[in-house]
């Protein structure tokens, strides 16, 4: 029997998962100075997706995870096929994060260490975090979230305190109308980071609370992290202006400009660690999703599943030749064509089938 | 005496040997078993006018004063005019009228007679009866109640536990005068037959947990328990962790406080270290003094302790990581001075730190083992030869000596020695990670430790409570300690979160450390 998790732990993981790797990038670059507005719009779309699709599926079947629901409503062959696809999708998302994490570590922290060693350490850490079970990982998130949020708040305060933000970079808003904002928001920001909550279809059933409470906490935490991501983007644009799209990790660049009291001068390694904590949790969550999936599909033991998924993720993280190729592939192809399939199309189809069948069943009962 | 230990002992010997009605047979058997050592006394005497009796005891572990009065009372009995009244029931007569000790019990088998003698009882056997009487005359040389040597406080009670289980239970009873205070006695160890007492507050501690502990204690199958450390390892079983999952303390006030919060204590005869469980990680940073001092300074000290734990665990590895991989983090002037110091040092920072840390661990161990008289010699060698001249000879940098010394001092700030050792062990692992992966390695290490700690449980209580799972009501006594009048409820960690103050019961808030009256005036 799986250990149950509390609402607080679920909320913590939602927040840390959504924040995850998003502060690494300036999202919705195409929208220029209105990028943060595009993120906001993306967040609202994501909210609709979360409430109308993701949580709707959960509310119909609160005691099942995604794969069980697919098996029940789509039949064995189709459900199995789609489940395998989802396992690979989770692994692939994890792979992307491992690669991001590894490459950025090499850029910012460990220029001479081999990439394979760094990624091995990442995979090992992630594996050890979930080998104790889902509940342990959720407790880790609960422990970490106050620290992460606190340090981010401190960081933003320091940036504001040292006068890094320039309002001229963001006003006037809606300078070029609504069109570029919408174009940038959909589907990119919906798919990364907001639509990624599709993973939580694997986790909802682990909670011990009733569905209304879960829905409430999910929406609240989503809003909090959505606003947080919007704020981060706003600050990046306000701090860097037109330079922002040109650097690898804008927030890091901004942080290295902090100079306070001749002590806090070069804090970027610490900021790197902060960013990486988020990435770490994100990739581990996907890893966990893949592990739960593999266990369900193959009936293997937890430890074996952790090993298999770890192997896939570590091996897969060598798929890209360079960080540039990785980012390019991610933002140009995956975010536009592949991820929406898993995050938007399949869940919408699924929720329609589930709703339809349930309604019919309800009518037959009546 | 608990049933289980009795049966455990019996199954050890092949069959229960019944007492014989013939006194001489019994005495012969006993001499055969015990040998004729000089401290084994078999005193034959005549009681109730004409009955032959024997009093058997081991003089070294008996209270000779008690035995003298016992013998006197038995002999006096035969002089009393109505001594003949119990002709028919001499055994009953002895037990009812003429044994001048408190605790007596009847024994039926020779094995029990033997065990009773070994526990320090005097056994009285009457000729013609297959029943013996054990009188509790145990008493041995023991240390008086002294100030605890390992957990000292500036303010607070100065008494500490001793090696005697009776003294220890008395110290706890003296603190908590409540009928809810329960003590379960057990005998563990086939050969040592050590008294082990489980102490808890009925109505506060979780009953299921107490039953579980009791069961785990009964399952212990060993021939010796010499210290509470044995019990600790036996009842934890196969849990691999550097972190202590059971607290130990020499202080009765700490035990009383723990009992009142729903913990249970295990007292083991022969050691002043009493176990307290279940515990959480944060408990190890609380000293009983926190609750006696003003809350502002207590909170401040607690934060100091927690940062000391981090320093003791991470400082050398941070130094290694920053000087090896992230020099840009240092202010320029510091960087230049560090570089100048390290110029002549032949080793990389990791090796340098390892050498110094190991040196310190050796010095520390030497400090514990060596005789007090030559202590000053070691400190001169340690401080001057190893510290100063190693720097002057260019073997290690001065900064490294500072780092190692500060780490060492910080590791002594943690109130619990157990938790200090956990930090010591983790420190070395962290140093390797820092030497190979820099800050990133440290973060990965911390992540794994966090995962490990999140999975730990001490008797069912998650180790990181109340931080994860979050219990908001318990945060009043974690990083800070709020004033006593604000702690209205017991922490909900270990048992029932009953009201500590302001409840309808007149004396509910008046127990132990939360003294209702003193609080108002303070």
From TrEMBL, chain B:
<feature type="transmembrane region" description="Helical">
    <location>
        <begin position="306"/>
        <end position="325"/>
    </location>
</feature>
<dbReference type="GO" id="GO:0009847">
    <property type="term" value="P:spore germination"/>
</dbReference>
<comment type="similarity">
    <text>Belongs to the GerABKA family.</text>
</comment>
<keyword id="KW-1133">Transmembrane helix</keyword>
<keyword id="KW-0472">Membrane</keyword>
<keyword id="KW-0812">Transmembrane</keyword>
<dbReference type="InterPro" id="IPR050768">
    <property type="entry name" value="UPF0353/GerABKA_families"/>
</dbReference>
<dbReference type="InterPro" id="IPR004995">
    <property type="entry name" value="Spore_Ger"/>
</dbReference>
<protein>
    <submittedName>
        <fullName>Spore germination protein</fullName>
    </submittedName>
</protein>
<feature type="region of interest" description="Disordered">
    <location>
        <begin position="497"/>
        <end position="522"/>
    </location>
</feature>
<feature type="transmembrane region" description="Helical">
    <location>
        <begin position="426"/>
        <end position="453"/>
    </location>
</feature>
<feature type="transmembrane region" description="Helical">
    <location>
        <begin position="393"/>
        <end position="414"/>
    </location>
</feature>
<dbReference type="GO" id="GO:0016020">
    <property type="term" value="C:membrane"/>
</dbReference>
<feature type="transmembrane region" description="Helical">
    <location>
        <begin position="264"/>
        <end position="285"/>
    </location>
</feature>
<dbReference type="Pfam" id="PF03323">
    <property type="entry name" value="GerA"/>
</dbReference>
């Amino acid at each position: 029997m799986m250990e149950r998790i509390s609402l607080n732990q679920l909320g913590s993981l939602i927040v840390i998962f959504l924040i995850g790797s998003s502060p690494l990038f300036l999202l919705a670059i195409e929208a220029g100075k209105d990028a943060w507005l595009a993120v906001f719009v993306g967040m609202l779309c994501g909210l609709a997706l979360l409430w109308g699709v993701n949580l709707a599926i959960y509310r119909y079947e609160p005691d099942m995870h995604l794969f069980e629901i697919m098996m029940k409503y789509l039949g064995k062959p189709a459900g199995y096929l789609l489940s395998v696809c989802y396992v690979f999708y989770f692994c692939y998302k994890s792979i992307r994060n491992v690669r991001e994490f590894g490459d950025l570590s090499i850029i910012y922290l460990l220029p001479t260490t081999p990439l394979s060693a760094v990624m091995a350490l990442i995979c090992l850490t992630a594996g050890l975090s979930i080998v104790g079970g889902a509940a342990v990982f959720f407790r880790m998130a609960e422990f970490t979230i106050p620290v992460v949020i606190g340090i981010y708040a401190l960081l933003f305060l320091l940036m504001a305190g040292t006068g890094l933000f320039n309002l001229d970079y963001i006003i006037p808003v809606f300078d070029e109308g609504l069109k570029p904002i919408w174009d940038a928001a959909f589907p990119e920001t919906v798919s990364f980071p907001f639509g990624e909550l599709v993973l939580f279809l694997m986790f909802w059933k682990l909670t011990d609370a009733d569905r209304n409470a879960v829905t409430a906490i999910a929406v609240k935490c989503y809003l909090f992290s959505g606003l947080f991501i919007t704020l981060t983007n706003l600050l990046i644009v306000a701090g860097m202006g037109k330079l922002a799209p040109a650097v690898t990790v804008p927030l890091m660049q901004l942080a290295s400009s902090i100079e306070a009291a001749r002590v806090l001068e070069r804090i970027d390694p610490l900021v790197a660690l902060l960013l990486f904590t988020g990435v770490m949790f994100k990739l581990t969550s996907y890893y966990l999703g893949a592990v739960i999936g593999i266990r369900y599909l193959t009936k293997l033991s937890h430890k074996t599943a952790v090993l298999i998924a770890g192997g896939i993720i570590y091996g897969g993280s060598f798929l890209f030749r360079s960080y540039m190729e990785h980012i390019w592939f991610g933002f140009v192809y995956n975010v536009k064509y592949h991820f929406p399939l898993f995050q938007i199309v399949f869940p919408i189809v699924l929720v329609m089938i589930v709703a339809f069948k349930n309604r019919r069943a309800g009518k037959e009962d009546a | 005496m608990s049933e289980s230990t009795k049966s455990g002992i019996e199954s050890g010997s092949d069959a229960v040997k019944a007492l014989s009605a013939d006194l001489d047979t019994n005495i012969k058997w006993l001499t055969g078993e015990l040998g004729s050592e000089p401290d084994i006394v078999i005193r034959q005497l005549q009681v109730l006018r004409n009955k032959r009796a024997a009093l058997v005891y081991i003089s070294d572990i008996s209270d000779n004063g008690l035995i003298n009065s016992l013998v006197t009372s038995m002999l006096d009995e035969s002089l009393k005019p109505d001594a003949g009244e119990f002709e028919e029931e001499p055994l009953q007569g002895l037990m009812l009228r003429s044994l001048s000790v408190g605790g007596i019990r009847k024994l039926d088998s020779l094995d029990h007679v033997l065990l009773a003698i070994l526990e320090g009882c005097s056994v009285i056997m009457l000729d013609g009866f297959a029943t013996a009487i054990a009188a509790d005359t145990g008493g041995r040389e023991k240390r008086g109640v002294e100030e605890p040597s390992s957990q000292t406080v500036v303010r607070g009670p100065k008494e500490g536990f001793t090696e005697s289980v009776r003294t220890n239970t008395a110290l706890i009873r003296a603190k908590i005068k409540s009928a809810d205070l329960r003590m379960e006695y057990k005998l563990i160890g086939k050969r040592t037959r050590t008294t082990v007492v489980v102490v808890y507050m009925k109505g506060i501690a979780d009953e299921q947990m107490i039953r579980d502990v009791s069961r785990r204690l009964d399952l212990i199958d060993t021939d010796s328990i010499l210290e509470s450390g044995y019990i600790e390892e036996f009842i934890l079983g196969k849990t691999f962790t550097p972190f202590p999952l059971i607290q130990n303390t020499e202080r009765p006030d700490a035990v009383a406080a723990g009992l009142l919060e729903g913990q249970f204590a295990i007292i083991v005869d022969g050691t002043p270290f009493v176990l307290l469980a279940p515990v959480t990680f944060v408990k190890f940073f609380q000293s009983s003094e926190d609750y006696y001092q003003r809350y502002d300074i207590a909170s401040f000290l607690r934060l100091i302790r927690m940062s000391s734990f981090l320093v003791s665990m991470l400082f050398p590895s941070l130094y290694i990581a920053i000087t090896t991989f992230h020099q840009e983090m240092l202010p320029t002037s510091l960087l230049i001075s560090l570089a100048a110091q390290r110029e002549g040092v032949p080793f990389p920072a990791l090796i340098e730190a390892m050498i110094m840390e190991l040196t310190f661990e050796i010095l520390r161990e030497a400090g514990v083992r060596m005789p007090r008289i030559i202590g000053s010699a070691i400190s001169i060698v340690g401080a001057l030869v190893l510290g100063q001249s190693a720097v002057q000879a260019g073997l290690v940098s001065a900064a490294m000596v500072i780092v190692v010394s500060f780490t060492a001092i910080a590791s002594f700030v943690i109130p619990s020695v157990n938790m200090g050792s956990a930090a010591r062990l983790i420190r070395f692992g962290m140093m390797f990670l820092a030497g190979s992966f820099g800050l990133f390695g440290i973060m990965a290490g911390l992540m794994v430790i966090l995962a490990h700690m999140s999975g730990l449980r001490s008797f069912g209580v998650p180790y990181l409570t109340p931080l994860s799972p979050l219990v908001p009501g318990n945060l009043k006594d974690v990083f800070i300690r709020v004033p006593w009048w604000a702690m209205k409820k017991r922490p909900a960690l270990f048992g029932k979160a009953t009201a500590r103050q302001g409840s309808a019961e007149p004396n509910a808030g008046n127990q132990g450390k939360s003294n209702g009256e003193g609080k108002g005036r303070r």
